[in-house]
From TrEMBL:
Protein name from the UniProt record: Acyl-CoA dehydrogenase
Superkingdom field: Bacteria
Annotated Pfam families: Acyl-CoA_dh_1 (PF00441), Acyl-CoA_dh_M (PF02770), Acyl-CoA_dh_N (PF02771)
Cofactor(s), names only, from the UniProt record: FAD
Family note: Belongs to the acyl-CoA dehydrogenase family.
Amino acid sequence: MTFSLRPDHADPRTAELVARLRDYLDGELADYERERGITPSGRLTRSDLEPVWRRSRELGFYGVHLPEEYGGQGLTYTQLAALKEELGASGRVLAHSVLGDMGGPLRAGDILRHATRHQLDTFLLPLIRGERACCFSLTETDAGSDVRSMSTVAVRDGDGYRLTGHKVFSSAGPFADFAIVVARMAETGEQADDKPRFSAFLVDLDSPGCRVEDGATPMSGEHIESDIVLDDCRVPAANLLGEEGEGMRIALGRVTTNRLLHCPTVLGATRRALDLTLDRARTRLVAQGRPLLSLQAIQHKVADMATGLYAARSMTYAALAALDEGREVHTEAFMCKLFVAESAFRILDEAVQIHGKEGLTQGNEIEFLFRKIRMFRVLTGTSEIQRNGIARALAFQH
């Protein structure tokens, strides 16, 4: 894999998809955002998002990773990663809605294979068509890295369940129709002495006893999070995903894959930051009318930034290629998440430094990207959690 700020792809199918995606992101979607005055810190509505879901579906991008039977193109992980990288590199606010990351098919994850016919028809096929949206509700205030300490509980009630608890950081919650909720089973009798079991449920967000509240605004300033408050909310048995006690396996079943697939989007955003920094260093004049990039100190900074990006990108795509070959990449996924998060943060820190005052100013894209990338060192598993996973894997190697 060679280094480029605008990568080419040897695979013709990937090259064609990337070219069409770039055209859409830089053209039609950019115009749409400009016409509607959409900014990273603005509040998005369904009326903002639904046209993007429909248009992306028409162009073949929304749910493109899915099998053909669901209207997708059955992409490999490497091909999907190439598209996700372009989304991150585009600078588009609504890039997260093009493949279905924000409330769409990518947010639903791997639950299709656990769904019944009723669940497909009622929840998931409308989701794939862009008619409904979902959020994933796992995290709680005191159950983040250790999700098994959650207090949300599901109690059997005749032919259904009653859920009570408070979920936080439910991304896409402000415009979702239903949530995938994981809850601890309230056991009785002998089962109460066993270790806790968790189940997953599809919960309509307009159900009695379910309330969607404004979530905390993350440091990125985006208004995309909700709290899902469940107060004796009744959920039909038909909405149980899989079997009782399988909820955590369903929720975390593709954790290795998902951990890897978060990396290309961050790599794309980092690529954009380097591109913006080079442009700034070429055009900003210093003493005697020379460009900032003529200074050796700046040259060394951008050289280190590019090298870090190349290393992070290379190891990520190497792991994705191995995953496509059917090989186990559990340890490599930990390594990629750790290295990409830490490298991207260092690169963005230098980007702010080179931009100077502009890099500290709200409304400047570099300032926004710095805040966004900083979050990745915590989200989807902190860097410390990744190191724990790597160390455990090494301890069991002979």
